[in-house]
Amino acid sequence: MSNLERDPREAVCGGPADTASEPVNELLAGRDVVLGGTRGMKVTRTLPNRDVRMVGAWCFVDHYGPERATMRVPPHPHTGLQTVSWLLAGEVTHRDSVGSEQLVRPGQLNLMTAGRGISHSEHSPAAAELHGVQLWVALPAAHRETAPAFEHHPSLPVLVSPGVRVTVVMGELGGLTSPATTYTPLVGAEVLLDAGAATTLPLRPGFEYAALVLSGGVRVGGTDLGPGPLLYLGRGRSELSLLAGREGRLLLLGGEPFEEKIVMWWNFVGRDHEEIVRFRREWMEGSAFGTVSGTDDPPLPAPELPMTPLKARARRR
């Protein structure tokens, strides 16, 4: 799933100056976004947030479901990012302009690297339960013009302890490394805890981290957390304690603070207003993003740009 808002907000993020340099426990409320019109799927968007716009290179987090819904996202473009699709329930078929067609199921990773430009669509069976997260990772300048690519990883490394199962989706955690391609030091991991289970995750003090509970409830570093808000944890931690009062599932995100400022608008990640204008023009002209085969849906038109130029802002409010 991607950003289908008809009036997308501009977000300018990045740069380490305003990153919390010590541990914090800062609850960041998400905002409800309905994708695809009034009858579309509702998601809770916690990144970019008004107060914290990135966590490492993670720049976009949508949590949706569980609900009976149909995902039907027409062909649309991306630049300068990776999309990370992670399901807890249901299944979604991905098609893209480099010729990929892949069904993703719970516990499997679909990773699309947009690089200099790609288009894709996403469809699910009608009236099926869907629950998952869609995340974006910003590409650094050295790699944002890379060739577009797609990866599917049906199995991922897992850390297991009594009552706890940790899947390393992206990057490295606890000595295990995901096979997914990354371009900056980061981690994305799903942690499933039985009722009453506790664990301590090893962290890197130089990374900043955040946690998002996807179901149940988990005490994260002393803060009780349920589905909804993102818990920003800052930097300076070497470990993180987790305790589940009832069965809980959470997503841990982290990474080195992103050194560069980026501009996000609609489904594009660029560096300034002029780049976003060019990306939009190329998409509307039908150039630079290829063609998605296997779907009858017409390409999604880009929204109108705002009247004022897209400007850089600090990474934190």
From TrEMBL:
Its keywords, alphabetically, are: Iron, Metal-binding
Which Gene Ontology MF annotations are present?
metal ion binding
List the InterPro entries. Pirin (IPR012093), Pirin_C_dom (IPR008778), Pirin_N_dom (IPR003829), RmlC-like_jellyroll (IPR014710), RmlC_Cupin_sf (IPR011051)
Q: Which residues bind Fe cation?
A: H76, H78, H120, E122
Q: Where is the Pirin C-terminal domain?
A: 190-286
Isomerase: is it a keyword of this entry? no
Biased composition of type Basic and acidic residues is found at 1-10
Instruction: Give the protein's cofactors.
Output: Fe cation
Cofactor binding, per record: Binds 1 Fe cation per subunit.
Which positions fall inside the Pirin N-terminal domain? 41-137
Pfam family for this entry, one = Pirin_C
Q: Where is this region: Disordered?
A: 1-22, 290-317
Instruction: Please state which protein family the record places this protein in.
Output: Belongs to the pirin family.
Question: What is the name attached to this protein's record?
Answer: Redox-sensitive bicupin YhaK (Pirin superfamily)
Gene source species:
Streptosporangium becharense
Question: What broad taxonomic lineage does this protein's source fall under?
Answer: Bacteria, Bacillati, Actinomycetota, Actinomycetes, Streptosporangiales
